[in-house]
Write a structure and sequence with these properties.
The protein is mainly alpha-helical and 550 residues long. It starts with 13 loop residues before the first strand and ends in a 30-residue tail after the last helix.
Length: 550
């Protein structure tokens, strides 16, 4: 008996909460009873899921934008996560996470409430703005929307951060330097990318329908709101977005993408009575409000002063100073914050690539985005990190080929094709790309050229654009020889030796790819002399991940 495939989440139309329901959840949230509040909202959201069918989708009750925004803040809010004074405080943050995850799989991703809830720079202005002639009914609705309390107002994530890219950069700084904070920021980034990707994909699908204005539909997307928060036609602004995506807690990225809440990475020294203090009882219906009005935990996030009881950072803990780290001593995976961080970085690059591809007149065209902003940042990375970024890409083969061809431009003096505007073919691949070397004597630059050529080879193999010919083999061997004659700057051993090893390994992999191509076409590969088995080993800095289609 065959098993049924698991049931896929069924998206349902959103129904705003009634005034009574909105105020009921608000009563919990304003007294910091976050677990109860979001459990209540989650029940309203999921009611009807089991009986909904594609033919009959029951409406799902969705919280007001202010309450969704609070949930987003609580995912990472220090006072209920890494700086929680009470053991049960984290339950409120986790309840907010569960609620947002269910929202992302239940509600239409194009719902206007979601964009309103997650829009940086608007919540503080929208909350509290009321027309002097507002009707009593409208005033009541506004009161239900408005939330009081530091996490919902001055200390909300949307208020504290400059914009979405500030949060992205800081989160990825934490992935390398502040692991405790990264555990929460990772969850937030995953949630936001789920919303962003679903919203974008839904809009692309709707925009492809006959009679629809695709451009305007995409300009209404949440990711475009985040892009347009910058001067999107400005190369400097686009490059900042890419810098945020590859932020690695260097002194430069720490300066550019600072912490969201003051002192959020520092450990508070627990008070002696914190472990014995009873959890305040709250019973809204009977008028028992616990310690409402006591914002002792939230106030800590306002400012950190010399009087705050802060534990010194542990040399091996999450708060260790990145200035004390030896950047080159870490492997590339650690420098990029681990596999989860790498996957999230790649998802953001892929999403911005989609924006460039679909909105070239509003953002910039794909080739210019890769040639200027991406290349400007990627080519400054250490060679091992650069190799890892290329090999874990989530771009489709056609986008990956466009990226790689544009990464070559600043490195070589010869004219090479731009695969963002020209369809790849074997002829100019053999003549113009495979034999190429860097314009300088630098081993680092030639290694990066080799790594790019290697990725291009795999893209063309994946697209069935290569045939094993004598000309192909000659071009590969010529390029390997040309790049291996380069020498690094004297005395720059820290840069030269790792790059040299990567260059040798890349050359071996190129020959190995050629042999695979020959075998796939029933051709006996030629024997070759191997310098050592070490060049063929799989170093820890080299990962591969499955490519995603457009």
């Amino acid at each position: 008996m065959s098993k049924r495939p698991p049931r896929q989440p069924l998206r349902r139309p959103a129904q705003p909460l009634s005034w009574v329901l909105a105020n009921h959840s608000k009563s919990y949230l304003e007294v910091s009873q976050y677990a109860s509040g979001f459990t209540f909202l989650n029940t309203l959201l999921t009611t009807g899921s089991s009986v909904s069918t594609p033919a009959k989708r029951y409406r799902a009750y969705l919280a007001p934008a202010a309450q969704l925004a609070l949930a987003s803040t609580l995912v990472v809010y220090p006072s209920v996560t890494t700086k929680a004074k009470l053991p049960d405080a984290i339950k409120g943050s986790d309840a907010a996470v569960r609620y947002l995850r269910n929202v992302s799989t239940t509600i239409d991703p194009m719902d206007a409430t979601l964009k309103s809830a997650f829009a940086f720079g608007e919540r503080s202005r929208r909350q509290g703005q009321r027309s002097p002639n507002t009707s009593p009914t409208a005033k009541a609705a506004n009161n239900a929307e408005r939330l009081l309390g530091l996490p919902a107002e001055s200390q909300s994530l949307l208020h504290r951060a400059e914009d979405f890219w500030h949060v992205v950069g800081w989160a990825f700084n934490c992935s390398r330097a502040h692991k405790k904070r990264w555990d929460r920021w990772k969850v937030w980034l995953e949630l936001m990318l789920d919303f962003l990707e679903a919203d974008w994909q839904a809009r692309v699908k709707v925009g492809n329908e006959e009679g629809e204005d695709e451009r305007q539909i995409l300009l209404d997307s949440l990711i475009w709101h985040y892009v347009a928060s910058e001067e999107q036609t400005n190369r400097t602004s686009r490059t900042r977005m890419v810098r945020a995506i590859v932020a690695m807690a260097t002194p430069e990225s720490n300066k550019e993408f600072k912490e969201i809440w003051a002192g959020e990475t520092l450990d508070l020294k627990p008070k002696e009575d914190d472990t014995t203090r009873a959890v305040p009882k709250v019973d809204i219906e009977n008028g028992e409000w616990g310690d409402i009005g006591s914002d002792d935990e939230d106030v800590v996030m306002e400012d950190v002063t010399e009087d705050d009881p802060i534990e010194p950072p542990s040399p091996t803990g999450s708060s260790s100073s990145v200035e004390c780290m030896e950047f080159e001593s870490e492997n590339a995976i650690d420098q990029l914050g681990g596999i989860d961080a790498i996957n999230l970085r790649q998802r953001l690059i892929a999403l911005l690539s989609q924006v460039a591809s679909h909105l070239p007149s509003d953002f910039t065209d794909l080739g210019s985005f890769y040639d200027s902003s991406v290349a400007d940042v990627f080519l400054r990375l250490p060679t091992s990190v650069f190799s890892l970024i290329l090999s874990t890409s989530k771009l489709s083969d056609i986008y990956q080929a466009a990226l790689n061809s544009n990464l070559l431009f600043p490195l070589v003096s010869a004219t090479t094709p731009n695969y963002a505007s020209v369809h790849p073919n074997q002829s100019h691949f053999e003549e113009l790309i495979l034999p190429i070397r860097a314009m300088t004597q630098s081993v680092e630059k030639n290694t990066k050229v080799s790594l790019i050529v290697e990725q291009l080879f795999m893209c063309m193999m994946g697209a069935n654009l290569l045939q094993p010919t004598d000309g192909l083999r000659t071009a590969i061997q010529s390029g390997i020889a040309a790049r291996n004659t380069r020498r690094g700057k004297k005395g720059n051993v820290e840069e030269e030796q790792p790059s040299k090893r990567l260059l040798e390994a890349s050359a071996e992999r190129l020959l190995g790819l050629l042999e695979l191509l020959e075998i796939a076409n029933a051709i006996q590969p030629q024997e070759r002399r191997r310098k050592s088995t070490s060049a063929l080993s799989s170093p820890p800095d080299v990962l591969t991940s499955p490519k995603e289609s457009d």
